[in-house]
Amino acid sequence: MKYQRPKGTADILPSDAQKWAAIENRAREVFKKYRYQEMRTPMFESFDVFSRTSGETSDIVTKEMYDFYDKGERHITLRPEGTAGIVRAYVENKLYGPEVPKPFKTFYMGPMFRYERPQSGRLRQFHQIGVEAFGADSAALDVEVISLAMALLNSVGLHSLKLSLNTLGDNDSRQKYRQALIDFLEPHEAELSEDSKERLHKNPLRVLDSKDANDQKIVADAPSILDYLTPEAFKHFELVKRYLDALHIPYEIDSNMVRGLDYYNHTIFEVMSDSKAFGGKWTTICAGGRYNGLVEQLGGPETPGVGFGLGVERLLLVLDAEGIELNEQHDLDVYVVGIGEQADVEALKLVQSLRQQGFSAERDYLNKKPKGQFKAASKANAAYTLTIGQEELEQQKANLKNMRDGHQESVALPKIYANFDQARAILDEKEN
């Protein structure tokens, strides 16, 4: 029987895992500057956590969730996105309490799951990096989250980006716009796709997000939510634009953008790339917005929130297509060459000592001859080799060689065990 990975998943092999680690490390560095702390939540949650928050007419709930009943007959869902689980944890652990600083800023990294047709940059198990900030209904916090997204993408070398911006307003704005949209769409009901017909009266904003080509033609002339904003919602959006202008972050208004989840309100945004990875077509790699009301939906007190999620697979596709290397692979510091059975134990002790001193070290485990070990050291791009055989063992010395220029010296073993940094400094000084 031939065993293969499940459809829509990928094996992240060591050479690729280094790129993943580099992105995650950059993200942690950037998030630390903005004072966002990590949070880790389960990969599966109660079905209601997502069905209640994502919207009953969203594609995620109606088509894409991996849900099942466990042995205790509990309805369980593999998380399709990161925000709802973070909100559930925020409420359950009472992170809204008076002793917790406001706003509460957190980030997450990990796999998500959606049952959809696999394609480039879109898998059934995919990975997101995201941030959430709770407790402040401030346009300045919206812009901090946007600037954080841009800073993260800039930190990995991406600069040809487009920020698309919109607002979904407050509840009053949405209710007025909802009716206006229904009034516009009803004369076209027969022409709409089956999904859009079903959504027309349940959640007409979902029609704006339809991928059906004919639906897109129809909604091209739909009214804009910007014409239905309450004074408060208008003021919030104007402040967002003013802050973005102050930070010199360019943006484009897209009044038809609604995002794929129902919990969003006020500011929403997408950061897009026109990389050749997607044929030069603008494609979203990071998106988010404000979601006031979501905490209350999951049983918490009235708490505003805002955040974003970034698709790691898509980001990697862009980096590869643009030829951007996040080279955080560290070459091998020292390869210990052991010659003969008597030196085997000492070679093991040297490797362990070097590692404990903070160096990367390796040795042979395949009984290779000295020539084979030196080849292995060269292939691993080792900076130095330490060679020890019976003669060196008797003299309590090892032969230290700089692999870049071939210079070598005999160094006392006690010096290596005490401080390899000083030992190699002796070699480098004699070389100079």
Automatic annotation (TrEMBL):
Its EC number is 6.1.1.21. Residues 23-319 form the Aminoacyl-transfer RNA synthetases class-II family profile domain. The keyword Protein biosynthesis applies. InterPro entries: aa-tRNA-synth_II, aa-tRNA-synth_II/BPL/LPL, Anticodon-bd, Anticodon-bd_dom_sf, His-tRNA-ligase, HisRS-like_core, HisRS/HisZ, HisRS_anticodon. Belongs to the class-II aminoacyl-tRNA synthetase family. PANTHER family: HISTIDINE--TRNA LIGASE, MITOCHONDRIAL-RELATED, HISTIDYL-TRNA SYNTHETASE. This is Histidine--tRNA ligase. It comes from Ligilactobacillus acidipiscis. The gene is hisS.
